[in-house]
Amino acid sequence: xxxxxxxxxxxxxxxxxxxxxxxxxxxxxxxxxxxxxxxxxxxxxxxxxxxxxxxxxxxxxxxxxxxxxxxxxxxxxxxxxxxxxxxxxxxxxxxxxxxxxxxxxxxxxxxxxxxxxxxxxxxxxxxxxxxxxxxxxxxxxxxxxxxxxxxxxxxxxxxxxxxxxxxxxxxxxxxxxxxxxxxxxxxxxxxxxxxxxxxxxxxxxxxxxxxxxxxxxxxxxxxxxxxxxxxxxxxxxxxxxxxxxxxxxxxxxxxxxxxxxxxxxxxxxxxxxxxxxxxxxxxxxxxxxxxxxxxxxxxxxxxxxxxxxxxxxxxxxxxxxxxxxxxxxxxxxxxxxxxxxxxxxxxxxxxxxxxxxxxxxxxxxxxxxxxxxxxxxxxxxxxxxxxxxxxxxxxxxxxxxxxxxxxxxxxxxxxxxxxxxxxxxxxxxxxxxxxxxxxxxx
Length: 442
Hints:
Elements: H1 4-22, E1 26-31, H2 33-36, H3 41-53, E2 57-62, H4 65-74, E3 81-82, E4 85-86, H5 93-112, E5 127-128, E6 133-137, E7 140-141, E8 144-145, E9 150-155, H6 157-165, E10 169-172, E11 175-177, E12 183-185, H7 188-199, E13 203-208, E14 223-225, H8 226-235, H9 243-256, E15 261-266, H10 272-278, E16 285-288, E17 293-297, H11 303-315, H12 324-330, E18 334-339, E19 342-351, E20 357-365, H13 374-388, E21 393-398, H14 402-407, E22 411-413, H15 420-423, E23 433-438
Parallel strand pairs: 1-2, 1-13, 2-10, 5-10, 13-15, 14-16, 20-21
Antiparallel strand pairs: 3-4, 6-9, 7-8, 11-12, 15-16, 17-18, 18-19, 19-20, 21-23, 22-23
Helix pairs in contact: 4-5, 7-9, 8-9
């Protein structure tokens, strides 16, 4: 007869490969404000502390939407939202700071718990924070001024890494600070995603209270490729967008930015974090990039690989020469195709401020992969990006590859058809031919 102790020994032995695999890795954990109010919080904190004690480098980004809402309601202030984001007025900032601050202090106290006969006994967890997030105003969208609601401008990844190197859990609140000393209310999901991308985290883990993520037949999704995750998001109309939608969207954005794995787990299920990380079947839903071959947004570390692709084509006059400095400034416009960690393709999308138009530029594919359909696949990805940006016309200028673009559905047009801001930059000595493709609504 098998005893409970025997089952425990068996489970512990089976978990040891995962313990070895996770040691020294960096995980960014999204903890929404709703989860902080749940009875299960003490177990969540204990599980995060256990990861820390096993050598996992932990960044916790907490939310406070629920707490802010309660704080404003107590002051009889009606909250206003647009596109799912709170409009934060200057008059609301005192309540926002009070709500975020009290939530943060409560979490720090929870990580400090070390009573005998508790999971945290002897843990002596160190929690570190700071002004790691530089923010800027979100500005005016759709005619709506978001005032003191901001967006992430930069992440102090060196400061965060120093805290992680010291063995501390880094706790980041949904606030950012500008160079002028202003404070902005941020989306905690946006903060977590950018931190995960900039740190090149091994995992993004987000807690969700909607229950398992299932298909139409009620079958739980255990894994979703980046493409399948995108399809799931597209198929769910805006009126049904729940916490599940926003959790999966965060996972998709993180993986699209270079994070290898992202997980959605239940904040209601005791031990969901440990089950997801230390058992074969897991407990939630994992979103992952295909490490074999993937298409994703470019980042600074890709520039050397991109230059290796572009320089031979620049020498042949197929591409316009771009310096490393220019690529660094324009890296946000680039998409790369990666195979086994090697950049095998790249392309850029430059949106124009007029005529709902954009330009496809700098399409480059490694010579070994030019006959395998990679270029059309990369083009399709760029077109989807353009559709999401509500662009209707995609222009391309070329000197030597006109026939290929015609085969992909582009039609010849005149230089005079280009949007004015691009027409003024046209190089008449290069005499590039101009093509345009009409895009369907995204």
